[in-house]
């Protein structure tokens, strides 16, 4: 199976071919964000992960504390089901979920979308992990990965993609999570993390699995 990096690189190349001016502007925004070290406030190794209780796609509360009673937890933040890079990542994680579960771990995916808008019912039924709703990106902020969306990107999503993030996120479309993934050990501490303000770059499932193997 093609690596997630190869899949995202192909998606970026496709975007550059279809809309080079837009992708050039995104490059500039990402470069500027990195120069301001956005994402450097994210939790580091050994820090305690913030406790949370968030609604899943069916509106039922899922808490980190309860999940940790069963073993390590992989917490991944994604922007929303409207993001093609996020969808590539979720599919890649789904493909390796049996390996994650075999190591005693569980996976949760968190976005700011309201519970009934996070994914379609068919998509939910095909995902064997919890998809949670973090409205206002409050938990993302506690993990240090909340990002003020630049005006250029907000305008692009509103005009060019016809996306109303305020409606999708129940009133707050200005804040999105930096796509980030954390492995939280049973003691509630961060054992591994991947954080990159470039939303076109994602962690590899293999790296997550290697970390989980080291925890066993």
Automatic annotation (TrEMBL):
EC number(s) per entry: 1.11.1.24
Catalytic reactions of this protein: a hydroperoxide + [thioredoxin]-dithiol = an alcohol + [thioredoxin]-disulfide + H2O
Entry keyword Methyltransferase: no
Keyword Disulfide bond: yes
PROSITE patterns: THIOREDOXIN_2
Gene3D superfamilies: Glutaredoxin (3.40.30.10)
InterPro entries: AhpC/TSA, Peroxiredoxin_BCP/PrxQ, Thioredoxin-like_sf, Thioredoxin_domain
Domain Thioredoxin: 43-216
Keywords tagged on the record: Antioxidant, Disulfide bond, Oxidoreductase, Peroxidase, Redox-active center
Known role: Thiol-specific peroxidase that catalyzes the reduction of hydrogen peroxide and organic hydroperoxides to water and alcohols, respectively. Plays a role in cell protection against oxidative stress by detoxifying peroxides and as sensor of hydrogen peroxide-mediated signaling events.
Family according to the record: Belongs to the peroxiredoxin family. BCP/PrxQ subfamily.
Name of the protein in question: thioredoxin-dependent peroxiredoxin
The species this protein was found in: Shewanella litoralis
């Amino acid at each position: 199976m093609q690596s997630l990096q190869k899949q995202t690189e192909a998606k970026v190349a496709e975007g550059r071919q279809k809309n080079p001016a837009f992708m050039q502007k995104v490059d500039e925004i990402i470069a500027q964000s990195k120069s301001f070290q956005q994402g450097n406030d994210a939790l580091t190794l050994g820090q305690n992960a913030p406790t949370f209780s968030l609604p899943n796609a069916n509106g039922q509360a899922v808490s980190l504390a309860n999940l940790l009673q069963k073993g390590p937890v992989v917490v991944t933040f994604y922007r929303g089901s409207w993001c093609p890079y996020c969808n590539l990542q979720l599919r890649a994680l789904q493909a390796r979920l049996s390996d994650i579960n075999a190591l005693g771990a569980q996976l949760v995916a968190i976005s700011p979308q309201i519970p009934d808008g996070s994914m379609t019912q068919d998509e939910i039924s095909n995902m064997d992990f919890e998809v949670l709703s973090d409205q206002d990106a409050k938990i993302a902020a506690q993990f240090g990965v909340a990002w003020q969306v630049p005006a250029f990107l907000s305008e692009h999503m509103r005009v060019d993609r016809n996306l109303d993030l305020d409606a999708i996120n129940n009133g707050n479309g200005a804040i999105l999570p930096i796509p980030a993934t954390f492995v939280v050990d049973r003691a509630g501490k961060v054992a591994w993390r991947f954080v990159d303000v470039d939303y076109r770059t994602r962690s590899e499932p293999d790296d997550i699995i290697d970390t989980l193997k080291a925890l066993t």
